[in-house]
């Protein structure tokens, strides 16, 4: 059996304002697996993602490759887990695209040449090599989104956590994103409303509603359960609608 | 939404643009120091300095109008500060203005000093404008980092450069959203809405700062900003530096 990449046991999280965002979440994610996290608006998907690299910590029941998340292990964890935020304006904080993509590799202490190669590879992957000297402010929102992906790809993480990766992308670059995600061998966790993307990329699906895990299962199986999906404000991916 | 660049002309190409940023910073600051420490009000010396700077502006192909706009926008502050000098400086009395019982006298020495300061300020502003306009902002920050300018200061500037327009965008979008729902209503009502918008903007900016910090942490930020500086000093830069320094010194010695 494959190693556990992420192990979550009975995770609870309450925001300072009293909203309980996660209730008793337990979840195992295996190495190399692609897991889709779906659920209605405000279900707690993003909150859950923020736990994967220790930005939020409800309680200490999360282990990444068997390492518990604590202040001591944070640098180690963040090297392994690449998190991409939903709003690229928050993800891209350096004056130019190049500096942003180089930020991660530089904090990892890579040499100058290796940083250059990592940046070129990551930008090549998202088809934005010609934008390296530009300021992220002058990019379109789809381009920003792709640069945000590149900032994490350049760190070559073992676990890739993506929050709404396909929003704002035009159809062509959404396709490219799916191809990239399929090619990457890293463990992937994707929270999204783009059910077709989940169907194509992910082998397993987790449904979250009101902070609770309501279903975990094989992607096809879950997506064929129309009743379950509709009861949580979700639908059936359009690719499956046509068959049914 | 589109905005003007802070470093509008920094992406064009010229000899000045291609100079290594550290060399450029050194030369231009040297210029400011030379001008600032010029003692006598010798019109020829200032003329020579002006010719040096204007020919550099010419070489950089940055429009003169742009440079003058910058000078004009800063000048009022300088004049305001320096305006009291002609009245304060003791010396040969030139003119007296009587305001009732209050008598203000202007001295010749004071006027000379005033003109001196304004000329110095103008020349310095032109130099700094050229430096800013001919260098990519991020390169400028990196060069300052290499020159050991405190990191916190540079980070503040870097974030300002990145987020100033993001925040302006948010305000503009809010205003659009408000305008598209505005049908009538009193002036007072709209004024109140504007005030609320400012409050919302502040909270959003504050929350964004938190999220940006989290994004930095997520990518391994541990209190030190690291960037890759790839500009190299070439023979051309050294030559420029030597010639520039030589010309400046010749002017200084003859002044």
Short description:
The complex is a heterodimer of chains A (244) and B (255). Chain A has helices at 45-51, 74-80, 88-91, 97-107, 112-125, 141-153, 171-183, 195-201, 219-224, 226-231, 238-243, and strands spanning 4-14, 20-30, 34-38, 62-64, 67-68, 81-84, 159-163, 187-191, 204-209, 212-218.
Q: How would you describe this structure to a colleague?
A:
The complex is a heterodimer of chains A (244) and B (255). With 244 residues, chain A is of the alpha/beta class. Helix content of chain A is 39%, strand content 24%. Chain A has a 6-stranded mixed β-sheet with strand order 6-7-8-3-9-10, sandwiched between helices. In chain A, helix 4 crosses helix 5. The longest helix of chain A is centred in the middle third of the chain and has 14 residues, at 112-125. Chain B is mainly α and 255 residues long. Chain B has 2 domains: 15-145 and 231-254, no CATH class; 149-218, no CATH class. In chain B, 70% of the residues lie in helices and 5% in strands. In chain B, helix 2 packs parallel to helix 10. The mean pLDDT of chain B is 87.
